[in-house]
Specification:
The protein is mainly β. It is built from no helices and 17 strands. It has a six-stranded mixed β-sheet, with no helix packed on it. Strands 1-17-16-13-14 form a five-stranded antiparallel β-sheet, with no helix packed on it.
């Protein structure tokens, strides 16, 4: 499972925009569901906040865990705006809700909270050991979150793609797809280790930005006994 992104640390930048008088602190997120591939590969959560006190140090919490050291807290600009990103939390399977909270680092400081989703980037096959490579199985993919792009399965043997199949478009905030297909779309795949790479790129790309893979060991058929 791989998530190829430039991951950001704690919120560090500021964005200057006009501030309304007596603004209520609030912030927006760029997505409703974020992808977690591994503990060190998590999608950044982009934040744009407004309505806080100007030139004020801010605490940033994900699931109530501080995301910045006390001696290097991000700071709002003179208009009380803050912009930047933090990493989504890690989840090893499925999906769950997480909380992101911004709070002024002063007594009786203002705060704002948002709830979003995080999903594991993963694929499963059921049954895990079909009778033949032509048997129909159910592929369940999660974490491919571009709703406008189809999901593709690339069949790769010894580093070379042998065939690519379009599976359909994902649904829901967290990029879910559940389809029944023959395990292999062609007859008699060569014995050995195959990889099926699931991503949203029509042409096979081993360096795709976002993908997950399924390993399949194909064994040689025994000769019939006479």
């Amino acid at each position: 499972m791989h998530l190829r992104l430039s991951l950001a640390g704690a919120v560090v930048a500021v964005l200057a925009t006009p501030a309304a008088a007596f603004a209520i602190p609030d912030f927006t997120l760029d997505k409703t569901c974020y992808v977690s591939a591994r503990p060190d590969e998590r999608e950044p959560v982009t934040i744009n906040a407004s309505g806080f006190a100007g030139n004020t140090r801010m605490n940033v919490f994900v699931d109530e865990v501080s995301q910045a050291p006390a001696d290097s807290l991000p700071q709002t600009d003179g208009l009380g705006n803050l912009s930047g990103s933090v990493q989504a939390p890690y989840v090893d399977s499925g999906q769950r809700l997480f909380t992101l909270r911004l709070a002024e680092a002063r007594d009786n400081g203002q705060m704002a909270t948002h709830v979003a989703k995080v999903t594991a980037l993963s694929v499963t096959q059921s049954p895990s050991t079909p009778a033949t490579t032509s048997s129909r199985v159910r592929f369940r993919v999660r974490g491919l979150t571009d709703k406008l792009a189809p999901v593709y399965a690339h069949y790769v043997f010894k580093g070379k793609v042998r065939q690519t199949v379009r599976l359909g478009k994902p649904y829901g905030d967290c990029g879910l797809l559940s389809v029944r297909r023959r395990q292999f779309p062609f007859k008699n795949p060569k014995p050995g280790r195959w990889w099926i790479q699931f991503d949203q790129e029509q042409a096979y790309n081993p360096q795709a930005r976002l993908y997950t893979k399924l390993k399949v060991e194909v064994t040689k058929k025994p000769r019939p006994q006479h």
